Amino acid sequence: MDFTSKLSLYDTLTMLVTGLLILLLVVPFDVHPFLFDEWYIIALFVVACYVLGMLYHKSLEWFIKHLCRCKFCVRSFLRFSLFRSFCPNNMTMIRRAFVSIYGQSQHKEAIRKDDYFAAYYQLMQKGCLGNIPVLEAQEAFLRNLSLIALAYIFVYPLGNANMVKWFGALSANQCIVFILTGIIVLSGLLWLHNYTQGKIYYLVWEGNKYLIDMGGKKR
User: What is the pTM of this model?
Assistant: First the structure.
């Protein structure tokens, strides 16, 4: 999904929330609460959150794109399904979704990335994308949030000034509980991202099959 040309409520929330979480993590907020009574201060704060969220999203997108080209990374942690979904247009997941719709496991290796793109843009041309754009925005939000959640897991126990000011310092036992809870939450985010990405691929092939059954253009 092109975030520079398609602006929706989900896209906006994705940028705003991630930008806000980053600001709360790295910028010291020792300001008087009445300062935010001025509307223009609030407007500037919202704009700053959005711009930072957009920069973070584009930077993460660029980083993941190049990371997935690294053979060492692909052979190591990217071979695990929870991390594999971060690679854009992952062929393993695309072929798995193809088999679940068409049941042609013997032909799945013949499926190329261009076949998936053709199926996707055919759905777009026919106006049959349905809720796929919404799922794409949710996938982007979960991907952006995962790395931020990882940062929060590490910086709070290390004594991040903002978090200590708001929530207080953690004892040794509290640090262990917080880290374990954070790991559980992060695992949940990774699983949701993996599920959402797989659902997108499934719906694309499902829509493609529907158009074929209705006499549309074949793959």
Answer: 0.75
